[in-house]
Description:
By secondary structure, the protein is mostly helical. Helix content is about 45%, strand content about 0%. Helix 6 crosses helix 9.
Amino acid sequence: MDSAAYQRAGSLPGDAPALERDPDDRLRARFTPRRLTAEEIRDTLLAVSGNLEPSPAEGHPFPPENTWGFTQHAPFNAAYDSPRRSAYLMVQRQRRHPFLALFDGADPNASTPRRQTTTMPTQALWFLNDPFFHDQATLVAERLGTDGGDEGRIDRLHRLLLQREPGALECVRALRFLADYPGTPTERWSALARVLMAGNEFLHLD
């Protein structure tokens, strides 16, 4: 992690010779951007909302053994909600976790040395409609406080989600979005948070 190769960015502004010498990045002249894995996306959403529980998980709340009546045609299926890291989510062989399956999580029935990365309409619909995503965005909005007015909150939102200051045009667009979006102040800020949290800059490591 201390090496220069590890710390390189995905873009090399003003360094055209490096791009010409290593167009395919075989010599690691730059970092190859990638989308976060399914587990990383979920963990990041919990982290920015302040809802991530860092302690190790305990056992899942399985139904009592004396109630089991599962069969080949009626197998056990469950997806237990948890504020802990995705590494602690229950994995079932016959049915992948809905979120992990949607964002190309590993197949529990096979060795997966390298994952596919797909872009599907259902992923965009998840960001539009899923209660978990909306809940995290609301918590992000509530973390912003009121200091510095709308401009101050926009600055804190970008620093929290994107680890950078917003540009002048981004501030103008955000203020226009807040003015035009219907609803309560919390609903407006939650909607703006969802816009950033569903964007490529939030979902990709560069």
